[in-house]
Amino acid sequence: MIKITFPDNTVKEYPVGSTSLDIAKSISPRLAQDVLAATVNGQVWDLTRPITTDSTLKLHKWDDAEGKHAFWHSSAHLMAEALEAIYPGIKLAIGPSIENGFYYDVDLEGHQIIEAELAKIEEKMLELARTKSPFVRTEVSKDEALKTYTEKGDPYKVELIQDLTDGTITFYTQGNFTDLCRGPHLPDTSSIKAVKLTNIAGAYWRGNEKNKMLTRIYGITFPQKKLLDEYLVMLEEAKKRDHRKLGKELELFTFSQRVGQGLPLWLPKGAELRSRLEDFLKKIQKKYGYQQVITPHIGQKDLYVTSGHYAKYGKDSFQPIHTPDETEEFLLKPMNCPHHCEIYKAKPRSYKDLPLRLAEFGTVYRYEQSGELHGLTRVRGFTQDDAHLFCRPDQLKDEFMKVIDIVLYIFKTLDFKDYTAQISLRDKVNREKYIGTEENWEKAEQAIIEAAAEKGLNTVVEYGEAAFYGPKLDFMVKDAIGRKWQLGTIQVDYNLPERFDLEYIGSDDKRHRPIMIHRAPFGSMERFVAVLLEHTSGKFPLWLTPEQVVILPISEKYNEYAENVLNLLNNSDIRAVLDDRNEKIGKKIRDNELKRIPYLLVVGEKEAETQTVAVRKQGEGDKGSMTIEQFASLIKAEVENQIAG
């Protein structure tokens, strides 16, 4: 018998070799129907994999990320099987699950798949799913794996296998299809009841532009048709809210091939919006004792070698910048923190100087593959609302909790109500990718766990999601249509202070090492604006929107009065514009509502005589007439309520 420990710490005994599915059946037949995967001793397994030793066990259903991962990973294999059946001779590359669904990269050997053919592939997938083919896991030697795919003529699989270590290679087979894969997968194909292939794109093999361009087919599947229908409705809403579409309509930003891919150009309205966000955060930071700094866009290569960023980003980033002096070599900065470490070192520090809080809206550069670029959410140059706090050990938890307060205030002001704090820790097994001592990592991880608990945050723990230099608290926010975004991060770092030999003189007159906190409540200005655009559908809160009011004269006769209203509002620090086009008032109202301007003021003969305005509010319609002073007071009160709220 073996002892199985469940998440509530109850322990039960089962025969050696029992599977997670056997255990689920022993608990409840309904649970066995719903469960999709299991975490055994911290690793996600197939439900049908035998457990041979005492273990911890957590069962995953559809609502769990691990359950969806197994479901969509299995669906990628199902799609590959369908593709091979319909298009014999194609070459398969990789097919992982992703946040929403899955994809498979294939070499179509000269054939092209068009959108109209996706329905045929979907039908074949459902046909294969109904066969209830089990997913069978087998362990194979490297020689056997190479032989299998060399004989099949799949060069991409052969290349992948060559990079693997013998003794770690597994195949999964369902029906007549076998794939190189480490899993996990569903017990069989029958739970895949609804399929939608969503997109066809190009993707370079292994993300390298020097390699062959493959065809990437995206899809998503569900255990019920109803869930697919709901997803398709959400997808249509997401298209309407696409920040690239809204950014163009609202004249916020643009891109230019001459400037370069992934390098956004902020238009006047977008620059105003971004500036207002920066001012909002600067005001909060001043209250919390932050000091603004400015650092260059480049730095000597040695700076990033010292920090560890060159080893992390150098190979996949922009190439070094050379000057006429052969001894000089610079890099576009990938992060602001090395520069802030040098500011800390600019003069001796005492324990009385700490905490030192340095903040900067610093632009950084990372080379993203062209196929990975996406509007403002994935760019090559972006501005972080960065700050680095240098503190003593006795100040760490208090400083960390103050940063949490800043993040929560921002979320409240911008109406992000549904969020989870993700405690991102090291991988339990693979420690090689992290720098620093085990002792420092333990202290840093514990500080984050305690701070999150004291603030009463709704938390999840994710192993393997830490930064290479330290653990972090990532805020995962759900937007208005239920999509999850990572906004805001706080990280504890014992490593950079050591790498840069940062010190302070303690009350004991001895040298001590400060602890560093990295934090960015917005994350990056570009990505934050994109998420905010899609969350609000372009209807920004009144305090933030570039244009708060538009004045609409009924005819040219009232343009002069409309201009007087415009001047009075602008003099009251209300952002107003005038639409004096020679158009009917109905068209003016419709056009300006499409621009998401919160307030529309209609002026005609009655308003000119009584020195009033007829007020319409976006989404609420007619709000009646009022004097200009009354309207200005209304606007100011609404703004104050939003900021204080």
Automatic annotation (TrEMBL):
Record SUPFAM superfamilies: Class II aaRS ABD-related, Class II aaRS and biotin synthetases, TGS-like, ThrRS/AlaRS common domain
Self-association state and partner proteins as the record states: Homodimer.
Domain of life: Bacteria
Organism lineage string: Bacteria, Pseudomonadati, Bacteroidota, Bacteroidia, Bacteroidales
Catalytic activity, reaction form: tRNA(Thr) + L-threonine + ATP = L-threonyl-tRNA(Thr) + AMP + diphosphate + H(+)
Residues of the TGS domain: 1-61
Compartment(s) of residence: Cytoplasm
Organism: Acetobacteroides hydrogenigenes
Gene3D superfamilies assigned: 3.10.20.30, 3.30.54.20, Anticodon-binding domain (3.40.50.800), Bira Bifunctional Protein, Domain 2 (3.30.930.10), Threonyl-trna Synthetase, Chain A, domain 2 (3.30.980.10)
Cofactor descriptive note: Binds 1 zinc ion per subunit.
Name this polypeptide is given: Threonine--tRNA ligase
Keyword presence, Nucleotide-binding: yes
NCBIfam families with a match to the protein in the record: thrS (TIGR00418)
